[in-house]
Amino acid sequence: MARKPNYNFEKRQKDLARQKKKEEKLQKKALKKDALGNDIPDSEDQEGVDGQDETPEGGQLPE
Predict the structure, then answer these.
(1) Which of 3, 29, 48, 62 can pair with 54 through a Cys bridge, CB separation 3.0 to 4.6 Å?
(2) % helix / strand / coil in the chain, to the nearest 5?
């Protein structure tokens, strides 16, 4: 006898994937907006508490 498919599990997985994709899209859009809006970065925004430059998680400044 074949097992009965768990449609609730499949639906939940699709919903999670859809939500993750949507969040990534929003983050990418926000980064793009920040990059376009800040052509000349302020020195206060780039310096950390100890005076060293802060960089995002990628280790590179956005272009």
Answers:
(1) 48
(2) 55, 5, 40
Question: Residue 61: which residues within 8 A CB-CB, separation 6 or more?
Answer: 41, 46, 55
Residue bearing tokens 């970065």: 41
Residues 13-37: pLDDT tens digits? Answer: 999 999 999 999 999 999 998 888 8
What 3-state class would DSSP assign to 51? coil
Consecutive H or E run containing 8: helix 7-37
For 25, the token pair is 């899209």
- Give the C-alpha separation, 63 to 60, whole Å: 9
Query: Using alpha carbons only, what angle is made at residue 28 by residues 63 and 9, rounded to the nearest 5 degrees?
Result: 155
